[in-house]
Amino acid sequence: MINIGIIGSQSMHAREFAKVCNLPDEHGSFLIPDCRVTAICGMDDAPEHTADIARQGCIPRILQQPEALFDFCDAVMVATRNGDNHVALALPFLRKGYPVFLDKPVCISKEDIAVLENEVRQRDCIIAGGSGMQHNRSLKELKRLMDSGEVGEVKGISLNHNGDIDSPYGGIFFYACHGVEMMLQLLGKEPRSVQTNVLTHDQFSIFVKYQDRFANLIMTSGYQDYFVNVYGEKRNIAYRIDADDIFRETMVHFANRIRKHRITKSVDDLVRHVRVLQAIETSIEKKTEVLIEK
């Protein structure tokens, strides 16, 4: 059995991750039979809310300090809302060989990217994380459609998602990472530059240049339907993205990484959305096009 501990209970992600592993379906079967969330440390939260998250997710233990997870868990998910503390919270577990999942965004600063790169060089690490949109089934189906040639050569895409430049949980990094991750999955990991046009803190667009394609990310606030428009040489299509499966597919992905002992050889793909978001933040500040760091 893979016993997983969660750090952070303020975000609803903690509850949803736990429910995937701990709640059986109507037939009494578990989606991931050999995986359970066995403890949670609500270090970022009010005790009563942590208790409620534990109850809803059927998590048997509430711990006061992250270090206490060592005694009850084989792997850890860092699910605090602000990505600025994800790497610091993960380091003690990485250094003891625990598989670690870093919720979105994986991190925020260039310094934290360097720390992760150093850990991967020094030891065998299993590190997963980022937006669950990268594992979304409908997004993958759209990618297969784009690659099939049905729309012809893809010239670009536009998509919508939530965004908030002034989020208290890391500003642009907190919500916009979902839209960025969708783009990276559909057009590839090598965008070249971004330019952001801002109307308000929660109404803005991000124009992203690839070598031979473009993406236009439309960011607004509030829950909504998500669509991707694909502009092809043969025809254009509008595709609705059903995001209901992202917690399920994320947990399946993480459990598979642990089960198969898939070591992280490089963090480049893991932090690509962070580098894009860093460029977006700079573009907002300087009101100009900004190159994305490799």
Strand order of the largest sheet: 12-11-7-10-9-8-13
Question: How large a portion of the residues is in β-strands, by DSSP E?
Answer: 25-35%
Helix content: 25-40%
**What is the quaternary state of this protein?**
single chain
* Average pLDDT, all residues: 96
Query: What is the β-strand count?
Result: 13
Radius of gyration, taken over Cα atoms and rounded to an integer in Å: 19 Å
Strand-pairing-aware structural class: alpha/beta
Summarize the main sheet: 7 strands, mixed
Cα-to-Cα separation, first versus last residue: 39 Å
Count of DSSP-assigned helices: 8
Order of helices and strands: EHEHEEHEHEHEHEEEEEHHE
* Weakly predicted, low-confidence segments: none
Shape: globular
Describe it.
With 294 residues, this protein is an alpha/beta fold. Helix content is 34%, strand content 25%. The protein has helices spanning 12-22, 47-56, 86-94, 110-122, 137-147, 172-187, 246-259, 272-286; strands spanning 2-7, 35-41, 61-63, 75-78, 100-103, 127-130, 154-162, 193-200, 203-209, 214-220, 226-232, 236-241, 290-291. Strands 12-11-7-10-9-8-13 form a seven-stranded mixed β-sheet. α1 (12-22) crosses α7, α3 (86-94) packs parallel to α4 and α6 crosses α8. The longest helix is centred in the middle third of the chain and has 16 residues, at 172-187. The mean pLDDT is 96.
